[in-house]
Design brief:
4 domains, six-stranded mixed beta sheet, alpha/beta, homodimer
């Protein structure tokens, strides 16, 4: 007998225990924290982009490290310029010149009525407290005439103006960006301490699946959701992916692949076989070998997203459907993993648009609705992206973005303003 | 003599020839196209993220590849269900069952009053044109009673509904995302043809520069802008970076490093030494060894961004100042490189905010103004992010985002709405 008696009823009973997205994330974070030991490693800064800092990094030095000139001109004692005007210039002796890279003591200490010619970035000589721009002076032999009274620290970049020694440069749990790398470099740090990359096993299941590049027999289809989930994980930037080939829907084969794969991974994500119907092989493996954390979430699509534990390691179950897997990953797995590291996913592009066709929710669910945008040149309008099958990849690739509808909202009516998260696959060349 | 006589005047004359940002991009694209030969390579799809497709990719097969069931239920001939109701069900003989992965001919051809039990995703048997859900039927022995009349293709995913064979899946110049990789996989494509990665040489110059990790002598500073530019290039995802150690401000050393480095690169980006003052060593190398494309751009910061040609290879010159280098890269180099590949940079996160403190421009310049956001819970407010030195990295790391002011706009007044590009370094936890 291929199907259970009245599977509709079985399914309903089974999934009636589904929890909310936020409960699922909370449980997942708890399980991830209990099962994964966070370790820190030191890596070169130029390989640290998107890695997550494992500690608060304090500035070891001031930035800039020393007072320096913000312009090309003459370093002076500001007190010497008191009363200087175009008609009554102050005359100072240029004793020496300094450029960026010169030691601050190159010209000795600046005394009464002395000036030092400085290039932009040159250290301020001892005794000087300001810089006169070329435009406010005239050189006459070994002297300059200064035409303007200047205040202390005029045209000076002061030590510590950018960052002060001891100030926190980067907090724990920061996902490092280009600019953090620049900051670490300017602090002289060659290496940075980050969390070691998470190792995630991906196990696609399904007797119908064939690897891309192989011959497609009738009734089979190419395995692709595993490629999407692997790419989403890699895109996060701090996760190593071990992707297995598709396993047929046999409990023993799935069990074997999962147990073996988990030996070298921190967690597993299985793809496919997640609905409680004919092919709940992953569920049966968890039933026999592990524990359930949650089975099903009030999420659309992605209702069958589940989490179990095998050998004390988290096993997320995602649908084989690419759109449901994307929603389950985005709503639950991604935020949970970031929270494990006391971090949060980076800001994604979004715009505000006016609803032009009602966007409907199912009561109690959090929905990820793919949408199409249009524009009248003044503002954007948004409506559900309708295609025959909402489970198709084209609903992501051809849509402009998506709208997340919270559990307590029944939908958005025409005229309401909503936030549209943009798929960066498409630019906003809307009609 | 360290400085030229009246360098202020020299500088003004020199930079008076500056061109607009759009003219600079246009010239840069022309030069890139003339000097860089685009070559295509085949790479495995799971290493193709962010690479740029070098050709239009047509779907070799339909997606889904065959008609299949969208639900668990019974495949039927819709004509057999005409007139079926709860009180007058139609009786059909269940001849066989099929699941995903089974060949479509497993159960033979469906004839009058026959049904085939099917799992979600199972191919539709020949002769069937619709699927009855479990909920609309009752199994009685080898028969089912169908309670509802259904239309052709009800509960069927039709071949080609997602993508049709021959349809363009990915256009030339597309920067591949997670979902493109999923699409390529589901089309059975193991490899994809993309442009070979661009090779960019980065040469920081400046006698004051010390590599991170080394001892900082008085008057020196750590080289960091080169790390930022290298990370920006790597982040684009299709560029290989060769980063040299800082070269002191000596024409012969810079010339030697540049000529040697360019042998293995498609283009160079020099950092520092870009102002026409005391240390215009890169300019002197272009003067003696190459040709100028443009010197200076009406861009703030980043006014000294320039482009020359050495041995027919483009040499971009960026300021040593991290903020000016970021602006020059973002306004000119990045869009030019994307245009070389008939592509454009991905959408960046942005929000609309109301100006709460005037944001000023300098006439004729395109300005990248770092801004701070606040919120009253209803909407966002934006004002310039003010720190002592606008050239400091903290103006990027501590600001929320930036506003781009076009050349023809003098500034934004209080109350105006502007688009704020967000630095993904900071989340919108605004006061």
């Amino acid at each position: 007998m291929l199907f259970r008696e009245k599977p509709g009823v079985v399914m309903q009973k089974f999934w009636s225990k589904t929890i909310s997205v936020s409960e699922a994330v909370e449980l997942a974070v708890k399980i991830l924290k209990e099962s994964i030991e966070l370790k820190a490693i030191d890596i070169p800064i130029d390989r640290s982009i998107k890695m997550i800092s494992s500690e608060s990094i304090k500035c070891p030095i001031d930035l800039p490290p020393y007072n320096n000139s913000a312009v090309d001109g003459y370093a002076v004692r500001s007190i010497d310029t008191i009363g200087a005007t175009q008609l009554n210039p102050v005359k100072l002796r240029v004793k020496c010149s300094m450029d960026t890279g010169d030691p601050p003591d190159k010209c000795g200490v600046l005394r009464d009525s002395e000036a030092v010619e400085v290039g932009t970035g040159a250290p301020l000589p001892e005794g000087a407290d300001a810089v006169v721009m070329y435009e406010d002076s005239l050189k006459v032999g070994d002297y300059i005439e200064v035409f303007r009274q200047i205040a202390p620290f005029d045209n000076v970049n002061r030590a510590g103006d950018d960052f002060k020694a001891g100030e926190e440069a980067i907090s724990e749990g920061t996902q490092l960006t280009v600019f953090h790398i620049g900051l670490l470099a300017s602090l002289g740090l060659k290496n940075v301490r980050v969390y070691r990359p998470l190792k995630a096993l991906i196990l696609p299941t399904g007797s119908e699946l064939v690897e891309p590049g192989e011959l497609l027999q009738l009734g089979k289809k190419y395995s692709s959701t595993d490629y999407i989930v692997a790419s989403l994980l890699r895109e996060a930037g701090f996760i190593k992916v071990i992707k297995l080939s598709p396993t047929p829907d046999h409990v023993e084969e799935v069990k074997k692949a999962l147990l073996k794969g988990l030996e070298k991974a921190d967690l597993a994500i299985t793809i496919g076989g997640s609905s409680i119907g004919s092919r709940d092989v992953v569920h049966r493996v968890i039933d026999s070998e592990g524990l359930w954390v949650f089975r099903g979430v009030a999420l659309r699509p992605g209702r069958t997203t589940s989490l179990g534990l095998i050998n004390r390691k988290p096993v997320f179950i995602l649908s084989g459907n690419p759109v449901a897997a994307w929603a389950g990953f985005t709503a639950i797995i991604k935020p949970s993993i970031y929270k494990l590291y006391r971090s949060s996913p980076p800001v994604e592009p979004s715009i505000v648009a006016t609803v032009s066709e009602r966007i409907v929710n199912v009561a109690g669910y959090r929905s990820y609705v793919r949408v199409a945008l249009s524009s009248n040149g003044l503002k954007y309008f948004v409506k559900p992206y309708m295609i025959h099958g909402s489970s198709y990849l084209s609903s992501i690739i051809k849509a402009h973005g998506y709208v997340v509808i919270p559990e307590e909202v029944e939908g958005y009516d025409v005229g309401e303003e909503v936030v549209v998260q943009l798929f960066t696959t498409r630019h906003l060349h809307v009609a």
